[in-house]
Amino acid sequence: MIKKISHIAMVVPDLKQATSFWVEALGLTLGHIEPVPEQAVDIAFLPVGESEIELLEPVDEVSGVARYLSKNGPGMHHICFEVEDMEAVLERLKAADVPLIDEKPTIGSGGKKIAFVHPKGTGGVLVELYELPPAESQETRLASVRQRLSQKGHVYSAGLQALWSGFRQGNSEAE
């Protein structure tokens, strides 16, 4: 049911300052920074093996992440597990009387199904579950890349830009 640890999320008051530790001092690579308006956060993604560190900066003062930061200060916010069958995992947790924040999954970034498990049922840790969407078509994936590259004011990895450049070059050679 659980495939892997997807990411560990840290809430920070300042992405730029926090990112400098993780990238410059620790030597991790900044994958990209992405706004997530539904959760009122900007997220820096730092790949580590098959997992990621996510740095969450609230962009307003009333979101859940902002309230968490105000109450608890910076630090670990949640751990996320990739699951194979979200509905089956949620049913299993309900059957075990584990309190859920989301009894049904919502759709998160990239079309992932996501759901949160309440810390009351986990020994105090907020747990996120996510399930990848079915394999995307190449056109859907390219449209997503185009959209991300066109967003102003956000940093994206050199790899993503190289992918886009390579795709554009490959298409012009094919014509």
Structure description:
A hairpin with a 4-residue loop joins strand 2 (32-36) and strand 3. The chain has two domains: 2-134, 2,3-Dihydroxybiphenyl 1,2-Dioxygenase, domain 1 (Roll); 137-175. It contains five helices and eight strands. By secondary structure, it is of the alpha+beta class. Helix content is 34%, strand content 30%.
Quick structural summary:
By secondary structure, the protein is an alpha+beta fold.
Write the layout of secondary structure elements.
Blueprint: E1 2-11, H1 15-25, E2 32-36, E3 41-48, E4 51-58, H2 64-72, E5 75-83, H3 86-95, E6 106-107, E7 113-117, E8 126-131, H4 138-150, H5 158-174
Parallel strand pairs: 1-4, 5-8
Antiparallel strand pairs: 1-5, 2-3, 3-4, 6-7, 7-8
Order of helical and strand elements: EHEEEHEHEEEHH
Number of helices, where a helix is a run of at least 4 consecutive DSSP H or I residues: 5
CATH superfamily of the largest domain: 2,3-Dihydroxybiphenyl 1,2-Dioxygenase, domain 1
Number of strands: 8
Low-confidence stretches: 152-175
- The Rg value, from CA coordinates, equals 18 Å
Largest sheet: 8 strands, mixed
Shape: globular
Major sheet: arrangement of strands: 2-3-4-1-5-8-7-6
Q: What portion of residues belong to β-strands?
A: 25-35%
First-last Cα distance: 45 Å
CATH architecture title of the largest domain? Roll
Helix share bin: 25-40%
Rounded mean pLDDT is: 84
Class computed from helices, strands and strand pairing: alpha+beta
What's the CATH class of the largest domain, please?
Alpha Beta
Give the tally of structural domains. Answer: 2
Q: Remind me, CATH topology of the largest domain?
A: 2,3-Dihydroxybiphenyl 1,2-Dioxygenase, domain 1
